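Example 3.2
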Amino acid sequence: MSSNTPGGKPIPIEVIEESLYEVRRKIYPRSVTGLFARWRFILVFATQLLFYGLPWLSWNDRQAVLFDLVQRKFYIFGLVLWPQDVIYLTLLLILSALALFLFTAVAGRLFCGYACPQTVYTEIFMWIERKVEGDRFARIRLDGEEWPWDFHKWRVKVTKHFLWILIAFWTGFTFIGYFTPIETLGSSLLHLSLGPWQTFWLGFYSFATWGNAGFMREQVCKYMCPYARFQSVMVDKDTFLVTYDKVRGEPRGSRSKSVDHGSMGLGDCVDCSICVQVCPTGIDIRDGLQYMCIGCGACIDACDQVMEKIDYPKGLIRYTTERAIEDQESNQSAIKHILRPRVLIYTAFITVLASAFLFSLATRNPLRVDVMRDRGALAREVEGIRVENIYRIQIMNASEHPMKVQIKASGLDDLKILNSQGKEITEISVGPASNQLFPIKVSAMIGQNNSGNYPIHFDVVAQEFDDGKTAMRTREEKSTFIIPR
């Protein structure tokens, strides 16, 4: 099939399809050194040291950071969170979103360029690729059709993918180690006794890391990441972005180092295209702000090196603002516009929420109590002199220290709390980070009160023992006591 141009000449169907769908062109980023390359290395190293190292840290004879979904407990160093503490997760997610908005308003996609997992693992995989296959032009030649699949090419490709899969497997293993104790997981792996779900997620995350960082790379940033799409509504003329100075650089063109380019009517850009060659998403920063730019600064390092070689001032591509470019201001002058309304609003919200979050954690009562009536036996007479109501009391110790708990009931005269054997309860022991459910009976003398429903209070007092120190925790729960006719 084909279509026709206005002149009647047929257009091949391949051209029509290529105009409708962008055909992916493999990108071969060139290695670069400089200030921003060093910062990327530092942040890649720091984030991965944190990610790979945290599951192996111990705290109170357990894993320091563990999200135990089976036991429904989240351990974060000395903090133990339960499903009832979902408010903390909500606050943390809101704080993370506001921080992302703040960073974007101040300096664009800083997170994307330096700390996003997609960027971090792509950097790691590209580093391995350069070490095994060589830099940009060596990789292009190796992947070209003119290079046959000989022993050298097979050896290089197999080595690269073996190292990629090794990193991807260790990443998947570490990720699962945040949800299953990593030492137990490692032992199960060595003895080939992983459970079906552990095996599935290990394979899934390993494959996802290998595929995203090894093959999809910039496609994730361009088409799968929603942040790339809505970042434009969070930046303005005073946002610091990786920017090409068109006023200084245009018109671009090649020239000899010894020639006065000003007399030739040329700008400072020598049109070497190295800024395009080092870009991990393959864009040309000289075309202006684009949603595909992740703000990594690789083009800044590359351009500065070229400017240095031809004795031109650095900063043709730099972190600056649109207003600074238009008004020809220095970065020092542009910094004065950082504290604008949207930045102040984001900062105020983050400060208030972070303060509330920290205050709530600091004053959090680790003792939780829930009293439930037994619906199977609301009230009954015992030995003709007392009436009993049956309850189930749930006591949760959200600390990592044992507790001695005393329970008292008030609201009616001569209330007694008995266990299931009919003996009066004086004290209950609750272990660290544990949740215990106790059936109890509350009894009162017959004849002292008329029949009906009476509100009563359960006063729970716990002693928390922490390395010889004792802390008192209290809770009060309401319920009703039924006296039958």
